[in-house]
Amino acid sequence: MTSLLVIIVLVLLSIALWQLTKIFDLTQVGENSNNSQVANDDDNNTQGYLMFGFLAFIYIFTIYGLFQWGGLVLHTPASEHGALVDNLMNITWILIFIVQAITQVLLHYFAFKYRGNKERKALYFADNNKLEAIWSVIPAIVLAGLILYGLYAWTNIMFVDEDEDVVVVELYAQQFKWTARYSGEDNVLGKANVRYIEGVNVLGVDLSDKNAQDDKVVSELHLPKGKKILFKMRSQDVLHSAYMPHFRAQMNCVPGMVTQFAFTPIYTTVEMRDMAFMQEKVANINAIRAKKSIDLVAKGETALDPYTFEYLLLCNKICGASHYNMQMKIVVDTPEDYKKWLNEKPTLAEEIKAANVPAPETDVNVKGVDSAKAKDGKMIAQVALK
Ligand SMILES: [Cu+2]
């Protein structure tokens, strides 16, 4: 609300200033003989030099931006195909940088060189086939090269050999959280349908399907290092996008269909944390947090916790009010740790069975106490009396 008011005040101030200058101009009529609206040589010179000024501004700002914010890029990719994506991105950036550096100099130099001059007459210039061929053929070759490299990268990344030894994991998107499902021993996900969603079966897994018997549903994603993971994505409500920036992976989650993306993680979470660039990044973030904490503590609020690096699965489609907070932690483990973690998780069938166990005939259903909820500032224990 405050920012809206500030914007309104700024707009009104600009209108007032604009009107004031108009009134000022009107009061000058007749007093100054040189108030013609036609540009003279002085005006043209000023405009010509301003062109150079603007050119200097965009170059200085670009160089400043590179030094000031260049370190905020994601750095080392954590997946096998990540280097390919980064390479494509870097080549594109370098090309854009070179082309823009040359064309902007030419554009501004010619605008200066041929600035208005009373002595000069315009030259009628119909066309020049050689020139047109040059500026059509060069970009066509460069773009064709980029597109071919892009297609090569795309097929390489998106092709998954079905016979390959992959870990099949489902990512389920809904407003505003992620849930994952491991396909278990058989490596095949059981069928699922929104109609089966009930109680702990939040993904609507069809438990009459034999492939669903060993499926495991989790809220934190663990991946084994060095193994290809094939993600099958679904959405319950609207369009979401599964975005795993450190792995250079993104795929839309579309209601009514299953999309997929596969990648191989190459660094465990611990290995990533130990990298020099990451330690520097984390130290920077923590320095900012520590500084902010001083202000917070002075105001009587709690200080911020120190940050530790975690891989994340984010949503990259604006899917609603809490879209910004739709994320899930990803932990890349060694294959041994991953196996240990997954073995400790119960299957969905076991979870449903445990949830359906009738409460003991005795006085109080203790499990109900866990779901105590705060209401009107008071804790109300939902104790189910039998
Ligand atoms: Cu979303």
From TrEMBL:
It is found in: Cell membrane; Membrane. PROSITE patterns: COX2_CUA, COX2_TM. One of its GO terms (molecular function) is cytochrome-c oxidase activity. One of its GO terms (biological process) is ATP synthesis coupled electron transport. GO terms for cellular component: plasma membrane. Coiled coil: none annotated. The chain crosses the membrane at residues 6-27, 48-71, 91-112, 133-154. It is a multi-pass membrane protein. It catalyses: 4 Fe(II)-[cytochrome c] + O2 + 8 H(+)(in) = 4 Fe(III)-[cytochrome c] + 2 H2O + 4 H(+)(out). Gene3D superfamilies: 1.10.287.90, Cupredoxins - blue copper proteins (2.60.40.420). Its cofactor is Cu cation. InterPro entries: CcO_II, CcO_II-like_C, Cupredoxin, Cyt_c_oxidase_su2_TM_dom, Cyt_c_oxidase_su2_TM_sf. Its EC number is 7.1.1.9. The keyword Transit peptide does not apply. Signal peptide: none annotated. Residues 164-344 form the Cytochrome oxidase subunit II copper A binding domain. The keyword Protein biosynthesis does not apply. Subunits I and II form the functional core of the enzyme complex. Electrons originating in cytochrome c are transferred via heme a and Cu(A) to the binuclear center formed by heme a3 and Cu(B). Belongs to the cytochrome c oxidase subunit 2 family. This is Cytochrome c oxidase subunit 2. It comes from Flavobacterium psychrotolerans.
